[in-house]
Amino acid sequence: MSVASLQLFGGLVWILVASSNVPLPLLQGWVMFVSVTAFVFSLLFLGVFLSGVVTQISANWNFLDFAYHFTVFVFYFGAFLLEAAATSLHDLRCNATVALEPLLNDNQYNINVAATIFAFVTTACYGCSLGLALRRWRP
């Protein structure tokens, strides 16, 4: 899976979580941090490879590719679990001024379900890239 498609799925996670108005900032804040950070670093990583800087810097790029994908995979896996946990709290009732209302309204719940699915897809894509990077790094 190319880095560009990973950025697309990660960008969707970022957009979906942000559009749900982040009802659980403690859980979804980490999801936002991971998706935005991975998006930016993936763009930088892609830019380094496309610009040809790789040929000018003497480094073990196969290991750096493996280390990058491993780190992002671990962070995205945690973000996927937190987003799934936030989505599962749909029926949790909160004190409101008049009555107990659900933590997530139906629209926020649907957006969080989509964000959870795309977080899983992004995690799976980074896992596949991790496997390919391991294969390139290990002879």
From TrEMBL:
Its main location: membrane. One of its GO terms (molecular function) is structural constituent of myelin sheath. The chain crosses the membrane at residues 30-54, 66-89, 109-134. It is found in: Membrane. Pfam families: MARVEL (PF01284). It is a multi-pass membrane protein. Residues 1-138 form the MARVEL domain. Keywords: Membrane, Transmembrane, Transmembrane helix. InterPro entries: MAL (IPR013295), Marvel (IPR008253), MARVEL-CKLF_proteins (IPR050578). GO terms for cellular component: membrane. GO terms for biological process: myelination. This is Mal, T cell differentiation protein 2. It comes from Rousettus aegyptiacus (Egyptian fruit bat).
